[in-house]
């Protein structure tokens, strides 16, 4: 244990704030992803998923974050989506939707 | 055959010109033949940092426009054997030079010099494109601030996109007292974020200001900590393995005690 660090209250230090803010801003800089792009992605994912499940649109959230690469050697951008399902559609429901689309 | 190294940062005011002057001078002090090229056209400064401002006749734009030969534009530093400067033009703009012209100039100079060091302007526009076009290596200068680190990240991406793979980082103006208090990112924090190799850490040092006032690079001052850091960077450029300076400010005894108690530096 870092005996001296314990008294310094390192968690609140401004350098940690700097590092965390930088890491977040660089995810977006590096991925070169615009908010419009994310909205488009969100719209299309919703469209596909809605055919099979009912989704709570208000709480649907998709964001860019970072994750460790599979071999754990570096950080890579990752898309993380939180999709609350309010109801599963039954097979006959989505086959009915299909038929309606065909007509 | 010499090497062409661009010194760049993205953000202005982090010490590109000071680094160019000191690294160039330090390389000449260890016997290398060095030419510095100031590519900050319209905002020429490397001449005044080096104390060579009164000796300019031709500049880099005159060279690429073939108004003079490269040797005519080169100012030989009389204090340091083997150090030369090609100054920027002051009355033109970045568009007066093209990347092709810069590449041609660098290619011809590296036959004659051990190191061609290019002082890049701030920004990512034409001046940056010109400065990096002839380079095979890059030193990215940053300071431990969010804005400088963010811009360094962008610059590293652009260098890689331009096929410059040999990129090393200089962390400049580190305030040891603030790092100790946890009020400034330390070198490891910055390396975590940027994922690039480190070639040197330069402490914040008043000697940089006083030496620049006089036009004498800090590397000539034996007492200057920043000067020592730049001399080490020059050695690392030549391939010598020099450990990164301990900037904790502790003497060996205190450092040993701290090690026993497991205090992180």
Question: What would you say this structure looks like, in words?
Answer:
The complex is a heterodimer of chains A (103) and B (265). With 103 residues, chain A is α+β, with helices and mostly antiparallel strands. Chain A has one domain (14-102). In chain A, 50% of the residues lie in helices and 22% in strands. Chain A has four helices and four strands. In chain A, the strands form two sheets. Chain A has a two-stranded antiparallel sheet with strand order 1-4. A two-stranded antiparallel ribbon of chain A has the order 2-3. Chain B is built from twelve helices and eight strands. Chain B has helices spanning 16-29, 46-50, 60-64, 70-73, 99-109, 126-133, 146-161, 176-181, 187-194, 206-214, 225-237, 252-260; strands spanning 3-8, 34-38, 75-76, 83-86, 115-119, 137-142, 166-174, 197-203. The longest helix of chain B is centred in the middle third of the chain and has 16 residues, at 146-161. Chain B is globular. The chains are: A alpha+beta (103), B alpha/beta (265).
Catalogue the unreliable spans of chain B: none
Output the structural class of chain B. alpha/beta
In terms of per-residue confidence, which ranges of chain A show pLDDT below 50 for 5 or more consecutive residues? Answer: none
What is the average of the pLDDT values of chain B?
A: 94
Largest interface: A-B, 22 and 22 residues
CATH topology of chain B: Rossmann fold
Q: What's the count of strands of chain A?
A: 4
- Rounded to the nearest angstrom, the distance between the terminal CA atoms of chain A is 69 Å
Quaternary structure annotation: heterodimer
């Amino acid at each position: 244990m870092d005996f001296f660090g314990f008294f310094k209250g390192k968690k609140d230090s401004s350098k940690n704030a700097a590092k965390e803010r930088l890491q977040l801003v660089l995810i977006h800089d590096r991925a070169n992803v615009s908010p419009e792009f994310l909205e488009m992605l969100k719209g299309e994912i919703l469209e596909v998923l809605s055919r099979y499940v009912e989704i709570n649109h208000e709480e649907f959230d998709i964001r860019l974050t970072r994750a460790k690469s599979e071999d754990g050697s570096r950080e890579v951008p990752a898309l993380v989506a939180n999709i609350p399902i309010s109801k599963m559609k039954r097979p006959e429901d989505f086959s009915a939707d299909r038929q309606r689309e065909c007509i | 055959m010499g090497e062409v190294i661009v010194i760049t940062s993205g953000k202005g005011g982090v010490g590109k010109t000071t680094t160019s002057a000191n690294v160039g001078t330090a390389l000449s002090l260890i016997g290398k033949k060095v030419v510095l090229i100031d590519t900050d056209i319209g905002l020429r400064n490397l001449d005044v940092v080096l104390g060579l401002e009164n000796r300019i006749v031709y500049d880099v734009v005159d060279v690429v426009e073939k108004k003079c030969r490269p040797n005519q534009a080169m100012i030989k530093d009389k204090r340091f054997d083997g150090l030369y400067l090609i100054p920027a033009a002051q009355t033109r703009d970045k568009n007066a030079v093209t990347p092709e012209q810069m590449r041609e100039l660098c290619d011809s100079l590296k036959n004659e010099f051990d190191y061609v060091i290019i002082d890049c302007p701030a920004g990512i526009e034409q001046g940056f494109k010109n400065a990096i076009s002839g380079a095979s290596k890059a030193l990215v200068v940053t300071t431990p601030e969010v804005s400088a680190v963010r811009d360094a990240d962008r610059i590293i991406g652009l260098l890689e996109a331009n096929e410059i793979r040999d990129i090393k980082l200089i962390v400049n103006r580190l305030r040891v007292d603030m790092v100790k208090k946890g009020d400034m990112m330390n070198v490891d924090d910055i390396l975590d974020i940027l994922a690039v190799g480190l070639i040197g850490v330069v402490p914040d040092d008043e000697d940089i200001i006083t030496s620049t006032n006089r036009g004498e690079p800090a590397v000539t001052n034996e007492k200057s900590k920043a000067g020592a850091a730049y001399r080490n960077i020059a050695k690392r450029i030549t391939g010598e393995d020099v450990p990164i300076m301990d900037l904790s400010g502790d003497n060996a005894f205190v450092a040993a005690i701290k090690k026993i108690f497991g205090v992180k530096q």
